[in-house]
Design a protein that fits this description.
Blueprint lengths: L3 E9 L5 H11 L3 E12 L4 E6 L2 H12 L6 E4 L5 H10 L7 E3 L17 H8 L5 E2 L3 H8 L7 H12 L6 E3 L8 E7 L3 E7 L9 H14 L4 H17 L22
Parallel strand pairs: 1-2, 1-4, 4-5, 5-6
Antiparallel strand pairs: 2-3, 7-8, 8-9
């Protein structure tokens, strides 16, 4: 049977992030994708101009419909948007026993805040203890910890351990917002793993966080252990970023090329 993954996230009308990026990622990696839409955003490669949160009852109904019928091998959680939605998703997933990847979507690449500051405590309380993997970028990790942004590997490891102490089983500290010629991601679990790749000079990185977390969820859905899933996803995303300039989508931060291995 084909592996199946569920994404719970917001819709990106520009197609580069959110639900659209997640479903493209699942498909590119050979996994069937189901979706629960938490918000509809009006956005493109330049900006997010509006956000409409889906009512809690509809989000809960979507989750119930999917889990009540499909065999879901892994769940990826992205944009949630407010406290009540966080609580709704946590409650709806209470009986789910498969792996959960939580991408704490807090600020869009354009700078628009997608998670109110007041909802941060709810995310920490209700979803971090449910997650098998948390995938924050450097600004998101700093925000969750109410700390300055990590600047060194030592800082990243320290913040990752502190996030793990909040109840999440493992943390992937992503180095995409860092500096230098090499991008380093640290996986802090029972053991610590380092994943490195050359930093690519491109502005077309819209949706990289959504895409990486979805790729990890896809590999977990296939049955890969967490370190192998992260390594596969890290290398696949690097290739998708490397191919991004070929797409020439929009006038701002264009998307990565999710189907770089299938069509030019």
């Amino acid at each position: 049977m084909v592996a199946t993954a569920l994404t719970i996230a917001g819709s990106d009308s520009g197609g580069g992030a959110g639900i659209q990026a997640d479903l493209k990622t699942f498909s590119a990696l050979g996994v069937y994708g189901a979706s629960v839409i938490t918000a509809v955003t009006a956005q493109n490669t330049c900006a997010v101009s509006d956000v409409f949160a889906i009512p809690d009852s509809i989000v809960a109904a979507q989750i119930g419909a999917v889990l009540g019928d499909l065999r879901v091998d892994a769940v990826k959680i992205g944009m949630l948007g407010n406290t009540s939605l966080i609580e709704t998703v946590a409650q709806a997933l209470a009986g789910y026993t498969g792996p959960i990847v939580l991408d704490p979507v807090m600020v869009a690449k354009s700078g628009v805040r997608l998670l109110p500051e007041a909802a941060r405590a709810a995310l920490i309380r209700h979803l971090l203890p449910r997650a098998d993997l948390l995938t924050p970028n450097l600004p998101e990790a700093a925000s969750l910890l109410d700390d300055r942004e990590a600047c060194t590997d030592t800082d990243m490891l320290d913040q990752g351990q502190r996030l793990r102490a909040m109840g999440v089983r493992a943390v992937l500290m992503k180095g995409g917002h860092g500096a230098g010629e090499t991008c380093t991601d640290w996986l802090i679990a029972d053991e610590v793993y380092r994943f490195q790749s050359p930093r690519i000079a491109t502005r077309n990185t819209h949706g990289t966080g959504c895409t990486l977390s979805a790729a990890i969820a896809a590999e977990l859905a296939k049955g890969q252990p967490l370190p192998a899933a992260v390594e596969t996803a890290h290398r696949w995303l690097h290739a998708a970023i490397h191919a991004a300039d070929r797409l020439e989508i929009g006038h701002g931060h264009g998307p990565v090329h999710h189907f770089h291995g299938i069509w030019p």
